[in-house]
Amino acid sequence: MSIDRPGLDIRKATLRLGELRLANARGSFDVHFFRDLANETSAMAISTGTLELGEPLLARVHSSCVTSECLMGCDCDCAEQLEGALGTMAEAGRGIVFYLLQEGRGAGLTAKARDRMIVQASENRVNTFEAYSSMGLPADLRSYGIVAPMSRMLGIHAPIRLLTNNPVKAAAVGEALQGEKIELAGLESIHGPSSEFNRDYLSAKQDSGHDLAIADRHAGALPPLPVRVFEPFALPGNARRVVTASYFLPVALPADVTEEEGTTWFRMSVVYDRDSERESVLLSLGDGTTDEPLPMENTVTMGLLDRLPFLQGALGGEARESRAQGRPALERALLAIRKRGLGAVQIDFDERDRSE
């Protein structure tokens, strides 16, 4: 339900739109919604405890990762870092996560998917940073300027203790906060688990200077079928929809009544719609002999709150029905597809705040 204060404010080109209070087994969190009017992007801050105190404040500046946070993909550790940060803050009783929509290290969803397509086509011999370079992209296009006005509107003035493994990112965040005279007081590493599905990705980050300790450097798991790199193409019979990338995403599904919990390789295709000027994702399971996705069976929409796996189930009743049903709906669809061994689901993304 909405908390009492209206939460409307503006600082520079950042508009504060309101907040919600959510609670789960680990405690209560306030989710604050913002809109960057200059860049037409949304952002959230997820906080616990009193932010206005002068003691150092645990914080994480987290960039979105729809593949792990919404689609349950396990080829990175982004969702685990997000959940770990929120768990650490809940235990400390005070902290904040700045959640920025900067998919693919700021290059966007298609670039991220083409990165994975290039890596898988090379059978993991090319790493993520080399894939970006082959696309003519720098390794990181993220910016953190919005964190300063968000902090100001939330009343933060204490030194920040940043949860991150990336010293370059920490320096950029520290520079952004200088405008509000907020000090970066230090760093704390935050680690997600290593597995056969994300080992190559984490090793590449470690080699690039991230504070990680990947003990197992063996080659990670390969997708079930070869992947090829292709140029974008229009879907047959619908020239308004363009497939920009396709690769295999290992998805960690929960158990259902007939099968145990496990990881399933779904083909993930990114589709750009010329009419809506938006990207969507198709997850499909079938014979895998074509880059063209199988016929779509249903559509799931992911809202902003569906990006917070840690808080799934925190809403109840009517509020939950209207605000955070995307991830449970996707779980049900993928479990049904896995059971049949054939099918596809389309995932759309809705960036509008749901604080009202």
Q: What is this structure, in a nutshell?
A:
With 356 residues, the chain is an alpha/beta fold. 25% of the residues lie in helices and 29% in strands. The chain is built from nine helices and 14 strands.
CATH superfamily of the largest domain: GTP cyclohydrolase II
SSE run: EEEEEHHEHHHEHEHEEEEEHHE
Domain count: the total is 2
Overall morphology: globular
Give me the side-by-side strand order of the main sheet.
Answer: 1-2-3-4-6-5-7-8
**CATH level 1 class label of the largest domain:** Alpha Beta
Major sheet, described briefly? 8 strands, mixed
Catalogue the unreliable spans: 315-322
Structural class: alpha/beta
Mean pLDDT: 88
List keywords for this structure.
single chain, 356 residues, alpha/beta, Rossmann fold, 2 domains, eight-stranded mixed β-sheet, six-stranded mixed β-sheet, 9 helices, 14 strands, 25% helix, globular
Describe the structure.
The strands form two sheets. An eight-stranded mixed beta sheet has the order 1-2-3-4-6-5-7-8, sandwiched between helices. A six-stranded mixed beta sheet has the order 9-10-11-12-14-13. Residues 315-322 have low confidence and may be disordered. The radius of gyration is 20 Å and the shape is globular. The protein is 25% helix and 29% strand. The chain is built from nine helices and 14 strands. Helix 3 crosses helix 4. It has helices at residues 66-69, 78-92, 109-121, 128-134, 147-153, 167-177, 199-207, 317-323, 326-340; strands spanning 9-11, 14-24, 27-36, 41-48, 57-63, 95-100, 160-163, 184-188, 233-235, 238-253, 262-273, 278-285, 298-302, 343-349. The protein has 356 residues and is of the alpha/beta class. It has two domains: 9-207, GTP cyclohydrolase II (Rossmann fold); 233-349, Rossmann fold, CATH 3.40.50.
